[in-house]
Structure formats: C-alpha cells, structure tokens
Amino acid sequence: MTMNKGGKIAICVLVGVVALAVFGMITMMLWNWLVPELFNGPVINIWQAFGLLLLSKILLWGFGGRHYHQGRHAQWKRGLYQKFSSMSPEEREAFKQKMKEKWCRWDQDDSGRNSGASNV
After folding, report:
1. Helix, strand, coil % over all residues of the chain, rounded to 5
2. How far apart, in whole angstroms, are the C-alpha atoms of residue 7 and residue 14?
3. Are residues 44 and 70 in the same domain?
4. How large is the greatest C-alpha to C-alpha distance in the chain, in angstroms?
5. pLDDT tens for residues 61-76?
C-alpha cells in the first residue's frame, strides 16, 4: 500500500504536533513538580510551557543548527590555513611572535615568579 505525497505530509505534521504536545506536557509537569516546591515559583500552564520550550530553543540551540556552526568553524580554519601556508618561514615566525606577545601575556609576569610553571 503506497501513500501519496499529501498523506505523508499530513502524517509528518501530525507526528510533529503530537511530539510538541508531549514535550510541552513534560515541560509543564516537570516545572510544576519542581519549581513551586524548590523556589516558591509559579505554576505554569501548557502555553507557558510551550513558551519555555521556545525560549530554551532560542537561547541554547539557536536557529542555525549544528551544521551551520561547524561550517563557519571549518571555513575560518580553512582560511587561516591557506593564509598561514602562503607565508614564508620568516613571516610565520613573525606572526607566531606577534600572537605570543598579544595573547600569551602570562610569560611576562611582573611579580618575578617563574612564568612557565604554576606553583599550586
């Protein structure tokens, strides 16, 4: 038995709505079980639970997805590699020294302690 494209889309939408309702109910039940007891916080309804889910999506996951962030990281890394590989050995050393001076300031400790080792 084969389904047409409209039937598959309807099933996907139905599964999405059910999943959203389940996640909303779980969020609402966990919130109402923990927050009022632990923090004297308010009891929330299902729409507020959906709002919390949306807020957590925005704050914690973003809208780009994982692949977007990995792509930007890979693009940055690839560009840096190309720039670094096109430098002469003298330019590389000058670049490394400049980076050390800018980002590795712990080597220039004013207190007179040994800067390479930590005394814990």
Report:
1. 75, 0, 25
2. 10
3. no
4. 81
5. 876 655 555 566 678 8
